[in-house]
Amino acid sequence: MKERRHIQWHLLPSHARHSRIRDVVGSGDETVYVIDDGGHHVMLGRRVGAVQGECEYCLLGRAPVEVYEELRQGRLPLVDAFDSADELELCGVAVEEDIRSSNIFDVAHYDGINDVPQEYRVGAEFLNLEEDLEIT
């Protein structure tokens, strides 16, 4: 998520820094991870699935900070978290034992939530994959 956001908080002068957000909303298959992306946006993330010991896949998107506020207050159902998000990406993260940084790669880009396969959306069951997803 940090890789995809527009604003790198630590690079801003101290007087221009916004409130940092590091949060998890929901649980189980409805878990949505949230970090700040400037004062007006957040990055949303959802774990989609994994190939055991090799790669984990995540859906990422950029949304207005109001989406996060509505999720926290329970006014927006978690399954709708990505509905107003843009820059939707399915990313892969290489799993490497004893390595603190990760290799991140793009798997697919989506123009909107309607282009995201149902099995990757919030509420869908975490996928235990037999083989890596095809990069499109």
Describe the model.
The chain is mostly beta strands. It contains one helix and seven strands; from the N terminus they run ββββαβββ. It has one helix at residues 65-72; strands at residues 22-25, 32-36, 41-51, 55-64, 86-94, 104-110, 127-129. Strands 1, 2, 3, 4, 5, 6 and 7 form a seven-stranded mixed β-sheet that branches. Strand 1 (22-25) and strand 2 form a beta hairpin. The longest helix has 8 residues, at 65-72. The protein is globular, with a radius of gyration of 15 Å.
Shape: globular
Mean pLDDT value: 87
Total helical segments = 1
Q: Please report the total strand number as a whole number.
A: 7
Our measurement of the CA-to-CA distance between the termini, rounded to an integer number of angstroms, reads: 20 Å
Q: Please outline the major beta sheet.
A: 7 strands, mixed
Low-confidence residue ranges? none
In which range does the helix fraction lie? under 10%
Secondary-structure content class: mainly beta
Task: Sketch the topology as an H/E string, one letter per element.
Answer: EEEEHEEE
Strand content: 35-45%
**What is the rounded Rg?**
15 Å
